[in-house]
Design a protein that fits this description.
Nuclear Transport Factor 2, Chain: A, seven-stranded mixed sheet, 3 helices, disordered N terminus
Length: 143
């Protein structure tokens, strides 16, 4: 009986740890979108690792952007002007590496702009998740 209880306890504890790690990864991604919505340039830059890379895939090209440039573009906005609505798809974690897939719809002044998917790669530095790579698709047809 003690063995069964121990197995149940360890299983529940490991599930709780995995859920906690997933929650902290999601919290990092959510901090990015909250900072974008609040036009908080420093908050945007803070969720990225110093050597992070950002790419966007359009119809025919892949465009790169530095995190600092992205942050600067955010501070030109008014609070609440940009609203990227995401749904968490797959979240995968192994040790200090995580991968997150989020379909999204982007609104500017409450007007639909485009949709697509965001793909994040995160690394945990000293217990804190940072985005090391972000790539997204952009399209008008969302169905």
């Amino acid at each position: 009986m003690r063995t069964i209880l121990l197995v149940i306890f360890l299983g529940a504890a490991s599930h709780g740890f995995a859920q906690s790690a997933e929650d902290s990864v999601k919290a990092t991604v959510n901090r990015l979108f909250k900072a974008m919505n609040e036009a908080d340039s420093a908050g945007v830059v803070n969720v990225f690792a110093p050597e992070a890379v950002i790419h966007s895939i359009g119809k025919t090209a892949v465009k790169g952007e530095r995190v600092e440039e992205f942050g600067s573009s955010i501070k030109r906005l008014k609070k609440g002007q940009l609203d990227e609505r995401i749904e968490f798809g797959a979240v995968h974690i192994d040790a200090n590496m995580a991968s997150v897939w989020t379909p999204y719809r982007l609104y500017f002044d409450e007007k639909f702009i485009h949709c697509g998917a965001d793909s994040f790669q995160l690394v945990r530095f000293n217990g804190e998740w940072k985005i090391i790579y972000l790539i997204d698709t952009r399209r008008k047809d969302c169905d």
